[in-house]
Specification:
Strands 1-2-4-5-6-3-10-13-12-11-9-8-7 form a 13-stranded antiparallel beta sheet. The chain has 329 residues and is α+β, with helices and mostly antiparallel strands. The relative contact order is 0.13. The protein is 17% helix and 32% strand. The protein has 4 helices and 13 strands. The longest helix is centred in the N-terminal third of the chain and has 19 residues. Pfam families: AfsA (PF03756). InterPro entries: AfsA_hotdog_dom. This is A-factor biosynthesis hotdog protein.
Length: 329
């Protein structure tokens, strides 16, 4: 970022990353938090930067940074602030239950093709919940400013576990599910990347079965979604499922001319862990008010016959002049 430093930015450093363990990441290239600071009695700042050459976030068809990369930066900022300033144990697992974000100014995500996306996250953790002894309720509100202007607002809630309690809970849950039918389709075909606004086939997280049902691709070798091993499908992958499902379905519903669109608002609810070895089906429905030019898609995920996640995704067109002309020859 060029120009003078704002007073807020001047309190933070952007010269190096925090230790990867603080962001719950394994690879250094997957860490987006550079620094944190305390402001007031209940607010915290985090300096974040997303690398331009990232294999997932740079995989796009427009000269705009992906708002979902900013969501991931905020998620990491929450983890770092929790450990640095709020006494959260480093190995404490967390489960996101509700999350919403809104892009306040899409123009701030425009890619200059010179600088990475970087900004300042302001976090306001909610009051600690009581929980049930083996977990604690948590909530947060956050904003992201880019070039000193408001780019995104976020809010969410979930639960944190002591490590021993989490391990016991997941062992019991997975044991109960081991006898459930989890037969997947005989074969699936990953969608062409251009149908979901990507270029790299490996970043496509949706596939069609022979019956044309939409299912989630869980690629445990993916360098970003599976930066380290999980005992469940990670939240960032499910968020990308919501995005890809929305931009896939909107053109077929007559809401968009192409899948090249920005997610400007998302409200998601996660009601259960998504297991790694059982198929996850995905359904979509257009729910926006066309009279108001509202392009909104409802995306639902099911596993073992139960709904495990639901999202409402609002889309918007990018300015036509920014769309890259890809060489398809």
């Amino acid at each position: 970022m060029s120009g003078g430093l704002s007073p807020v930015r001047g309190t933070l450093g952007f010269e190096q990353l925090v230790p990867a363990a603080l962001a719950h990441r394994r690879g250094l290239a997957e860490v987006y938090v550079a620094d944190t600071a305390i402001v007031g009695s209940s607010e915290y700042l985090a300096a974040v930067q997303v690398p331009r050459a990232h294999s997932l976030w740079f995989d796009r068809l427009v000269a705009y940074h992906d708002p979902f990369s900013a969501v991931e930066a905020v998620r990491q900022a929450l983890l770092v602030v929790g450990q640095r300033h709020l006494g959260v144990p480093a190995d404490a697992p967390a489960s996101l239950q509700r999350m919403a974000f809104a892009v306040e100014d899409l123009s701030l995500f425009r890619d200059s093709e010179r600088d990475p996306l970087e900004g300042v996250v302001r976090l306001r953790p909610g009051a600690a919940g009581t929980g049930r002894g083996y977990y604690h309720d948590v909530s947060f509100d956050a904003t992201l400013t880019v070039h000193g202007a408001l780019a995104m607002t976020l809010r969410g809630s979930g639960i944190t576990f002591p490590r021993d309690a989490y391990d016991e809970f997941r062992e019991l849950q997975q044991g109960q599910r081991s006898g459930l039918a989890a037969v997947g389709p005989d074969s699936v075909r990953r969608l062409p990347p251009e149908l979901v606004g990507r270029r790299d086939p490996r970043n496509v997280v949706l596939a069609r079965t022979a019956a044309q049902d939409l299912v989630v691709v869980v690629d445990r070798g993916h360098p970003s979604f599976f930066d380290h091993q999980y005992d469940h499908v990670p939240g960032p992958l499910l968020l990308e499922v919501f995005r890809q499902a929305a931009v896939l379905s909107a053109p077929s519903a007559g809401l968009l001319a192409s899948p090249v669109a920005a997610v400007i608002d998302l409200e998601a609810q996660f009601t259960d862990f998504a297991e790694l070895d059982a198929p996850i089906t995905c359904t979509t429905a257009a729910v926006g008010d066309l009279d108001l030019d509202e392009i909104t898609v409802e995306v639902a995920l099911h596993q073992y016959g139960n709904r495990i996640a639901l999202a409402h995704v609002e889309l918007a067109h990018y300015p036509v002049s920014t769309q890259r002309q890809e060489n398809r020859s």
